[in-house]
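Hello forum,

I keep getting stuck at the same step: I have a sequence, I want structure tokens, and every attempt I make locally crashes halfway through. Rather than fight my setup again tonight, could one of you with a working pipeline run this one for me? It's a single chain of 283 residues.
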Amino acid sequence: MISLGTERIVSKGEVPVNMYSSMTVQHMEGSFEFPIKYGYSLVGEIEGTSKNVLVHLMHPHQSYCDVKEEDYFEVKEKIPPQRACLASNLETCLNAIWDARLDGNEKRIAVLGFGSVGALLAETLRLYVGIDPLVIEPNPWKIQKAKSLGFEVVAAFCEKNFEVVFNTTANETALNSGLAALALEGTLIELSWYGNRPVQINLGESFHTLRLKIISSQVGQIPKHMQPMTYLKRKEIVFKLLENEIYDEYISRIINLEEAPKLFEEIRKGPLKEDLIILIKYP
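Reply #2:
Ran it on my machine without issues. Output:
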């Protein structure tokens, strides 16, 4: 699976120098100054076993890899490989939900952006918490896709009474619109990473009088209040969610490995307008 946001930043050389160490991932080769071998969520079969064992791990895009047993998670037979690729982004979604401390009683929740993370987050809010969020998305293709999946969708906020807004857009204008839409003591969960781009946040107007909160959410650390939750337990929850076939609807394109360079040229130019989640099929 391609992580459209992070891999765009990496491929454009927009990783801040002081974040090189933090952004170094297992099995990465080279450096952020290029050349670099980088990648995300990978699913494959273990060779040399009597049965086909499907596993998930974090690894750069390639056909074969040599990894240790502790590097991968065995996938249940009922989950197909394409759907299993969504596991890493679903871990991101779970962390964001935990960061928001939702209890299922919230009435007004919004997800800003219906891209690869925003779409999975909206679905996971529905399945894991039992909340139907409002989706904020201006792209006509994504609006129709979200509606076809049963979500209420608007192109921009029309109300200002949301308890929690999740921002997945990596867009500062959207971020500020999300802040402006919060109710008293509302919370904005920021899932986007902007790399080395500076972001202006409006902390004037009603930010203080409404006692608003901005919380960063990132998959690398499980929130402290979730202890004794472990990374293994989080992954088990994710793969239990992935038993639901609805997640197949979020895969918009599967390309062959040789098509990847052309796709990354598209990605470097900006957000893709008619895609949600793109997978690479290895020979």
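The chain has two domains: 4-87+244-281, 88-226. If your local run keeps crashing, start a new thread with the error log.
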